[in-house]
Amino acid sequence: MEQVHTQLIEQLIQRFSQADNTPLYLKFAETVKAAVRSGILPQGNILPGERDLSQLTGVSRITVRKAMQTLEDDGVVTRSRGYGTQINSTFEYSLKEARGFSQQVVLRGKKPNTLWVNKRVVKCSPEVAEQLAVAADSDVFLLKRIRYVDEDAVSVEESYVPAELIADPDEIGVSLYDYFRSQNIIPQRTRSRVSARMPDSEFQSHIKLETPVPVLVIKQVAFDPQNRPIEYSISYCRSDLYVFVCEE
């Protein structure tokens, strides 16, 4: 058995021994996510089979199977018959959930980070005005940042937010949605459009790829519970690291 799997088994057994009300399958899934986030389980790693994991950890195969289904649903692993369960090397991002980038990254057992390029008030363009349902040339915050997943630069994102929704842009950390929630602004749903193009020089300068890859362009509007637009974002994402999903 690989050394990384030995470490994982030790962490699983330790987690199972902790007395709390968390179901065993969730303890299992959370431990795997933590191992991915910390780098113990590298991308592409093939996990031991359900029978081996059951025998080595002392939990039932039903528990293991339910944990693996949870990890697959969260985009942490991919399961295929005859091949096994593999730690994903791509980041699945749900276009349906109004959770924001950082929260989705954490839920998939990975580490998010943000490098801010710009936080300033600008006059909005007609396109931004239409998406935010405000008058043209209204004041909006332009929030531009480079997004990271597990130390890899994966996207460049521009967000436009009505100026009155942000009291102090310096209070926005890694997650804009966390800031929204701290101000009692609750993202409820999103509307997205996806297209593709080759990267321009600006994207290359931020992401620094040796070989250019196609860029997925995600234009998304987030709405609050009253169906008011609170953010219009344009994300330029590496197509080799992102998989976008939108389930009904």
Describe the structure.
With 248 residues, this protein is an alpha+beta fold. Helices cover 31% and strands 32% of the residues. It is built from eight helices and eleven strands. The chain has helices at 3-16, 24-38, 50-57, 61-73, 101-107, 126-132, 176-182, 201-207; strands at residues 46-47, 77-80, 84-87, 91-94, 112-123, 139-149, 152-162, 189-197, 215-223, 229-238, 242-245. It has a six-stranded antiparallel beta sheet with strand order 5-6-7-10-9-8. Strands 1-3-2 form a three-stranded antiparallel beta sheet. Strand 9 and strand 10 form a beta hairpin. The longest helix is centred in the N-terminal third of the chain and has 15 residues, at 24-38. The chain is elongated. The two termini are 40 Å apart.
